[in-house]
Amino acid sequence: IIPVFLVHRPANNIPYATVEEELVGEFVKYSVRDGKEVNFLRRDSEAGQKCCTFQHWVYEKTSGSLLVTDLQGVGMKLTDVGIATLAKGYKGFKGNCSISFIEQFRALHQCNKYCEMLGLKALRTTHQKQRKATSVKSKSLPNSSAINKTLPKKAREPRDFISSEH
């Protein structure tokens, strides 16, 4: 992320301005300010994948409390990034993007080879975890007391079973 410098201009109506290095080349938005995953048209580029991994790394290092978003620039020179933090901020830092971006990122992020190289943990939403737990519960067999309550008394009596396998 290229630095931005604050310049004092005392003779001007607006006494302060910011200045940064000129970026020459194709300007690309790798992730957008609305918190969506890396631009789908650019996610296969090396710069796009690294931006996505950087977001994932920051997210993991801050325990999901902070997300760098609005990654854009020329090649790997990025400018004017946004920051999303949880409602109370992260270590006193207030972001300039909605906290919903954090949840959107977690839901949409797809790990790539750089995430794997850094050993980052795969991100899963609470909804996905609950859905998986529900599907596992529905696949498990009910216990015998549940069967006994639903079957008529005659069907509950022990029987001799003949195995079809020889």
Automatic annotation (TrEMBL):
Residues 1-123 form the Alpha-type protein kinase domain. Residues 135-148 have a biased composition (Polar residues). Gene3D superfamilies: MHCK/EF2 kinase (3.20.200.10). Residues 154-166 have a biased composition (Basic and acidic residues). GO terms for molecular function: ATP binding; protein serine/threonine kinase activity. It is found in: Basolateral cell membrane. This is Alpha-protein kinase 2. It comes from Phalacrocorax carbo. The lineage of its organism: Eukaryota, Metazoa, Chordata, Craniata, Vertebrata.
